[in-house]
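Entry 14: structure prediction run for Sorbitol dehydrogenase. Input pasted below.
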Amino acid sequence: MKAICITAPDDITLTRRNKPVPAAGEIRVKLHYVGYCGSDLSSYQGRNPMVGFPRVPGHELSGVIDALGTGVSGTFAIGQRVTILPYFNCGTCFACRQNRPNACLNNQTMGVQREGAMAEFCCVPQTHVIPVHNLSQRDTALIEPLAIGFHAVERARIQPGEKIAVLGVGMIGLGIVLAAQRKGAHVIAVDISAHKLEIARQLGARETINGTNEDVTTRLSALTGGDGPSVLLEAAGSPHTFRQAVDAASQCARVVYVGYTKVPVEFETRLFVSKEIEILGSRGATRDDFETVTRFLEDNPACADIIISRIVPIDQADQAMRDWAANPGAITKILVSLLGPENNDGATA
Ligand SMILES: [Zn+2]
Ligand SMILES: [Zn+2]
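Run finished. Output tokens:
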């Protein structure tokens, strides 16, 4: 079968692998769409310390059940449309014992610490296969990346009418924009890309601030009657925005960090106390988040058209990654199609 492989930093190629055979309790999925995650871009650029090489990337996906291993539940059937929960938790660490599997100490995510799904087929345990009934295969591939933002909004405990700010509106930030509106928030989107801010606005952000030519903290204060946002969600992953979130926060705000910085960050810690802020981390997503996003996309089918930048066949997926690395600000989401050109689910390539 065809598979995309990152063999080393700056080296991505189309390869051939043996078609996997499902072991007992496993399901083989024939992939239809697999999205490139920002973590796949980091892996390609050699900036993802969690990844080992060579690595098949990909954990945002849709497909159909193609084969069942022995002992798989009768609720699964060949041809069923599914996505996959791509996180593998250990089940025994403190987080797992607290029923917080997304924060597992020993988590392995497909395409990062274990082999990913950017291939024609993959096998996973049946416990990771989630049937999807009413979404197109194309839109199903957006469930996982949007779920990361939806999880962050759950962490933020947003109340209706709150003015909240999202720092960084790449894919994760856009999920936050959508999930926060769903909670009734007034969303202010901040980024340094005019293109990404325009997408955030199309998805419902009420105000946008471009950090390249505006003073973000001053604008956030002005837009909130001098108080500052009561919730800030950081999804850019830079030391500057990590600090900005605390600086711009209102008294008693919640600050949620989803981004990963590559370097240590210095804070004015006095503000933690004087503002009595809550600082929260948000990691990955849960099965509940997947279900919430699935219902959201069913009810809001126009969102996917706005989010997806480009769909390429697997034969061009290596070049698409090189293009993304050359111009990250221009692209929100690349989907790789494993379908033949004759049945591309209505999507344009
Ligand atoms: Zn991802
Ligand atoms: Zn664990």
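Notes: The chain is about 30% helix and 25% strand. Will compare against the previous run tomorrow.
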